Amino acid sequence: MKVALIQTRTPATHAGALAEVEPLIRDAARQGAKLVATPECSNLVQRDRSKLKPALTLLEHDPVVTRLRQLARELDIEILVGSALVRRDDGEAANRAVMIAATGDILATYDKIHMFDVDLPTGERARESEAYRAGAQAVLVETRLGATGLTICYDMRFPQLYRALAKAGAQVIFAPAAFTRPTGAAHWHILLRARAIECGAFVLAPAQGGFHEDGRGTHGHSLAVAPWGEIIGELNHDDPGVLVVDLDLSEVARVRAAVPALANDRPFAAPELIRAPSEAEE
């Protein structure tokens, strides 16, 4: 089955985001994709939080998500909105993936679990948790691809989430992202290939790329990795584009039979530090 990964350089408004992503989705459908996935922050990219918060709406009112639901129905495709930045019912914000059926109905949503909070030696500070409420539930949804796991960006650094999805039956796991340029250059390929190998699953990562209206820089290089760990498709740049890959889901069973790591998994007790005896004790 053909799946398309959309790479965008999403602007700072809903209207700009839609003008960017809709033609790319139509192109993907023309190429025969039956499921199309967009990156993290597909509805707007705005790092100025004083401007971001007033722009957010409830999911059901978000203009980009609403239009993509119509587009899914028109084109008879499933669309994964890699994430939309939306307002929750309690007024807080969420970084939320949205799986849309070919009927236009919302099949499932997933709120990003792992927040990127860091203090760098350079003095730079990032606190994603100050902008968004973290999710607490892993999500597995039935799509045209079968059992499909949903993750978002920084989640890929937490293999326990991917393993839980794989052990629950995920054959394909999406990792839409807006990866920073320095960490993307260093870790993007390694992390995604490692997650695919560990899980014996396809890992598909549509990405934001280039320098955005708000000044943010993202890595691009949307990537599709097969269960054995080989790269089966990549946009080897940071410009907007469409990557179409044809997935053979029988590869999942073949790889998991060859390396049955999921089946061989065993529980174990957490380690405790064994301390060397002090001189007094000797």
CATH topology: Nitrilase/N-carbamoyl-D-aminoacid amidohydrolase
Using the alpha-carbon principal axes, give the shape. globular
Domains counted in the coordinates: how many?
Answer: 1
Quaternary organisation of the protein chains: single chain
- The termini sit apart by 67 Å
Please name the fourth-level CATH homologous superfamily.
Carbon-nitrogen hydrolase
Distinct helical segment count: 7
CATH domain class: Alpha Beta
Percent helix among the residues? Answer: 25-40%
Give average pLDDT, whole number.
96
Order of helices and strands: EHEHHEEEEEEEHEHEEEEEEHH
Q: Are there runs of 5+ residues with pLDDT below 50, and where?
A: none
Structural class call reads alpha/beta
Radius of gyration: 20 Å
CATH architecture: 4-Layer Sandwich
What is the strand content?
25-35%
Strand order of the largest sheet: 5-4-3-2-1-16
In total, the number of strands is: 16
- Largest sheet geometry: 6 strands, mixed
Please summarize what this structure is.
The protein is α/β, with parallel strands linked by helices and 282 residues long. It has a single domain (2-114, 128-263), classed as Carbon-nitrogen hydrolase (Nitrilase/N-carbamoyl-D-aminoacid amidohydrolase, 4-Layer Sandwich), CATH 3.60.110. The chain contains 7 helices and 16 strands.
Description of the molecule:
By secondary structure, this protein is α/β, with parallel strands linked by helices. It has a single domain, classed as Nitrilase/N-carbamoyl-D-aminoacid amidohydrolase (4-Layer Sandwich). Helices cover 28% and strands 27% of the residues. It contains seven helices and 16 strands. Strands 5-4-3-2-1-16 form a six-stranded mixed β-sheet. It has a six-stranded mixed β-sheet with strand order 8-9-10-11-14-15, covered by helices on one side. It has a two-stranded antiparallel sheet with strand order 6-7. Strand 9, helix 4 and strand 10 form a beta-alpha-beta unit. The longest helix has 19 residues. The mean pLDDT is 96.
